[in-house]
Amino acid sequence: MDFEELVCYSQTIILIILGIGYYLNVKNNTLPLKSKVESKCPSCGYTISDKEVNYCAKCGNMLSHSKGLSLEK
Ligand SMILES: [Zn+2]
Q: How close is the Cα of 39 to the center of ligand 1, in Å?
């Protein structure tokens, strides 16, 4: 195997890696859109984009759907 052949192989490998990277980028960009859950504050209607948030960022109202219940006991 001479040097030019080696360069040709490494360029092919780089192209494959770039292709995989591009594919993963596209995949990662499309997944959050599908799994994104938005909820609205029941008292002020503010849109809460983060599912893990227990309190409304605008009015401070406690959201009834999740972990917040354990705090009341
Ligand atoms: Zn609110």
A: 11
